[in-house]
Amino acid sequence: MLPDHVLEKFPLNAKLRDGTAVTLRPLGKRDDTKLHKFLLAVPEEERLFIKQPVFERTVVRDWCRHSDYERNLPLLLLHGQKIIGEPYSDHPVLPDP
Question: Residue 1 has what pLDDT?
Answer without folding.
Answer: 54
